[in-house]
Design a protein that fits this description.
Blueprint lengths: L3 E5 L10 H13 L4 E7 L14 E5 L2 E6 L6 H11 L5 H7 L3 H8 L6 H11 L4 H9 L6 E5 L4 H6 L7 E4 L22 E4 L2 H10 L7 E3 L26 E5 L8 H15 L3 E5 L12 E5 L3 H9 L3 E4 L8 H8 L3 E5 L3 H10 L3 E3 L2 H12 L3 H18 L2 H16 L7
Length: 420
């Protein structure tokens, strides 16, 4: 009888083509060759309010069984209230401060410290709040040999992992952001039996900032290789002008991903350079309008995405917060130059370790990076491609990654990690 694994993640679907959700899907599909795999997820597609989009129940996606549970949405007002609670900034604190009582009451009663009620409220309102999923985990814990939980931030992991700690592998996808260091998450790295980090930078971030971290861990990430493109499936808009050299951005078009800054920098650069474009591939959450310098594709299929990446000058990733950046590694696997935000330690480390690409922290560095990429000779492009592909092949092959998961999963099944 095959061993049965549950993968718990906040969203799941072929239409969700980035971040932890894509990571979860690719890992589930790889593990399904060795284990019986169930994905436990929600009916949400949009991560802003977690509205129910998919149908409750079970479906098969690329050979993997997916069980979906409904969400209960929160309002923006409730989320703001939850944020004030965990950051110790409740509305009535302003009145207490004006009366000169806030610091006195905090010293005496610790009123700024989030209470258990504040923390519980945060988890529910941050979401996706899916109590049926948690009930399923509690009532079916003995039907699975192990659980793999994705992403420290969200309700399914932050709450669900506590009911199966000795059976849990935790993939935190942690990055240096303010919310990570708040009270709701101070003990989350001590709960699971095993932590599988994406990068050395992520492991160092966690272990240098949290007192309670389990000893059992490894670094895996995802497997990548150059993708074949079926030209029959490439779907480009008739109005898409790719006659000029172009760079690509791939991912959510979202201010949280640094897209507002990227657009501002690129618009300035394009006015100086005149004959260069930025193709932004992904769902437009910012209401960005297309112009002669910026081409928006919306969500596209993999063949279209890979076609645009292969034919681009390189990939630009402006995000300051990444725990792995799959699209960066995809670009490297294609041998493409990557240009990344220096303020993201993970992205910068990819560039340094691979000895390819560029990083920037201001417009002048951004300009130099793009100019240098455009000026590369064919011979230089070949050398960069060789180094980038070698970096990915050495550090991110599926064979090595699945072997690491097999070792971790067997340790959980054998009870090796009990007593953390």
């Amino acid at each position: 009888m095959s061993q049965k694994i549950a993968i718990v993640v906040q969203r799941y679907g072929v239409e969700i083509n980035g971040g932890a959700e894509l990571h979860a899907r690719l890992l589930a599909e790889q593990l399904s060759a060795h284990y019986e795999v169930d994905v436990l997820t929600t009916t949400a597609f949009n991560y802003y309010r977690w509205a129910n989009h998919y149908t409750v129940g079970t479906e098969i996606i690329n050979g993997v069984r997916v069980k979906r549970f409904s969400t209960i949405m929160s309002s923006k007002r409730q989320l703001r209230r939850a944020l004030r609670g965990i950051f110790g900034n409740k509305k009535y604190f302003k009145l207490l401060a004006r009366l000169g009582l806030l610091e006195f009451l905090d010293r005496k009663y610790h009123i700024k410290t989030p209470s258990k009620r504040d923390i519980d409220y945060w988890f529910v309102k941050q979401g996706p709040y899916c109590p049926d999923l948690i009930t399923y985990i509690k009532t079916n814990r003995d039907n699975y040999d192990a659980f793999i939980f994705f992403t420290y931030l969200y309700y399914p992991t932050a709450v669900g992992m506590r009911f199966v700690p000795e059976k849990s592998i935790f993939i935190p996808t942690a990055h240096d952001e303010q919310i990570m260091f708040t009270k709701p998450y101070e003990d989350i790295y001590s709960i699971p039996a095993f932590i599988m980090y994406n990068t050395v930078a992520e492991k160092n971030l966690v272990e240098s900032n949290f007192k309670k971290v389990v000893n059992n861990s490894d670094i895996a990430g995802l497997g990548f290789s150059a993708a074949a493109v079926n030209l029959k499936n490439v779907d480009l808009s008739e109005n898409m002008d790719l006659s000029a050299p172009f760079f690509v951005y791939i991912g959510r078009i979202d201010s949280n991903k640094g897209c507002d800054e990227l657009i501002s920098l690129f618009e300035k650069y394009a006015e100086e350079q005149k004959n260069v474009r930025l193709v932004m591939i992904g769902t437009n959450y910012m209401g960005v309008e297309e112009n002669k310098n910026i081409i928006l594709t919306g969500f596209v299929n993999d063949d279209t995405k890979n076609f645009l990446l292969k034919n681009s000058q390189g990939l630009i990733i402006p995000s300051k917060n990444e725990s792995l950046s799959m699209v960066t590694l995809e670009a490297m696997a294609e041998g493409k130059t990557v240009i990344v935000n220096e303020n993201c330690k993970v992205l910068k480390q990819h560039v340094l370790d691979s000895k390819t690409g560029f990083y920037y922290s201001n417009y002048e560095e951004f300009k130099v990076a793009l100019n240098s990429t455009l000026a590369l000779t064919d011979a230089s492009k070949v050398k960069i491609a060789e180094r980038a592909k070698a970096y990915v092949e050495t550090n991110y092959s599926w064979d090595n990654i699945i072997e690491k998961f097999k070792i971790a999963l067997q340790g959980i099944i054998d009870g090796k990690y009990n007593g953390n």
